[in-house]
Amino acid sequence: MAWEIAPWRPFREFERMRREMDRLWDSFFERRPARVEEVSEWLPSLDVSETKNEYVVKAELPGMDAKDVDISLTNDLLTIKGEKKQEKEEKDENYHLIERSYGSFTRSIRLPGQVQSDKINATFKNGVLKVTLPKTEEAKKKEIKIKVE
Q1: The model's pTM
Q2: How many Cβ atoms from other residues are within 10 Å of residue 138's Cβ?
């Protein structure tokens, strides 16, 4: 009589139960009729990068116009505000699913250093807002070479 040795996986059953519960919840909400009146809060995705001379903030704002976006800088806090308005519902159109997000948003980013506020530049192209913030001379990091022996 040969015995097979199998690794002990105490949480395998819990993992299976969790997957089954996730599937049940997903199927429950898929059957729920979407309501056009529902407006949820949304936050645009951001990329924040730094070069030697500037900070660059990019925000994805699909379906928005530049006139619907407000950018402000207070001390070292950059704030981007806006509102994405929902399209008008057609009288003869019944929605089965609405996944696009609408509503107002506010995103604030604390910058790691001081910027030249009079030289900030913002562009809006293909639904992407790009804010370029030039660093002050004091904020530009000095490179320190480390000698490796």
Answers
A1: 0.64
A2: 7
